[in-house]
Amino acid sequence: MKRYDLALVGCGGVSRMHLEGYRRHPDRLRVVAACDPDPERLENCRREHGIERGFPSPEAMVEDSNWDVAVVCTPTSIREAVVRTLASAGKPIFVEKPLADTYEEARRIVEACRIHSVPLAVDQNFRYHYPFDTARQIIGEARLGTVHTVLHQDLMFRQDQGWRVEQPRHALSVMGIHWLDGFRWMLGTEAASVSCRTYASPAI
């Protein structure tokens, strides 16, 4: 089995979950490089996770290019610029969700990767965290008949920090994208329409 050398871009909060997950599969994955403009954060990440090389920018990391796959854990505000730079290296890119803040940005990101023939994937890990597979099987066996609508109500208490809380569609970009992906997987089709309503308790 081939082992892939990963290059991590962005050493903030969500990168820790990636690194912990990769650590569980040393026979398949190895993080060999990390990139972050904050020298202290970069050094702490390298020291804690035993990462050999560190870079202050995606451009410097591309120049080194001694890695197989890039993992992008940056804020969405700089996502397009980062992916464009990485795509020039001609290697696969794995991106945190949401892919972008707008449809147009997402379209440009996809197009940049297409031009360089670079595979691009968005992290949708909740597909494996919830019983979407069980529902997919039940629906596939026609035990429910034809499903026309999914109504989902999610009651939760979540405290985010950092750049995500400044997003204009925070609840949708942080969690709603997971549910939508799960429903797509569960039903084996794309949505014809989506409606969402968010509420915040005055007690919080």
Task: Give an overview of the whole structure.
With 204 residues, the protein is of the alpha/beta class. It has helices at residues 13-23, 39-49, 58-64, 79-87, 103-115, 132-140, 170-187, and strands spanning 4-9, 29-35, 53-55, 69-72, 93-95, 120-122. Helix 4 (79-87) packs parallel to helix 5 and helix 6 runs parallel beside helix 7. The longest helix is centred in the last third of the chain and has 18 residues, at 170-187. The mean pLDDT is 90.
In short:
The protein is of the alpha/beta class and about 200 residues long. It contains seven helices and six strands. It has a six-stranded parallel β-sheet with strand order 3-2-1-4-5-6, sandwiched between helices.
The helix-strand sequence is EHEHEHEHEHEHH
The gross shape turns out to be: globular
The proportion of residues forming helix, as a percent range, comes to 25-40%
- Tell me what portion of residues adopts beta-strand conformation: 5-15%
What is the strand arrangement across the widest sheet?
3-2-1-4-5-6
Structural class: alpha/beta
Number of helices: 7
Instruction: Provide the gyration radius in Å.
Output: 19 Å
* Largest β sheet strand count, sense and barrel closure: 6 strands, parallel
Count of distinct strands: 6
Q: List low-confidence stretches.
A: none
- Cα end-to-end separation: 49 Å
- Name the average pLDDT: 90
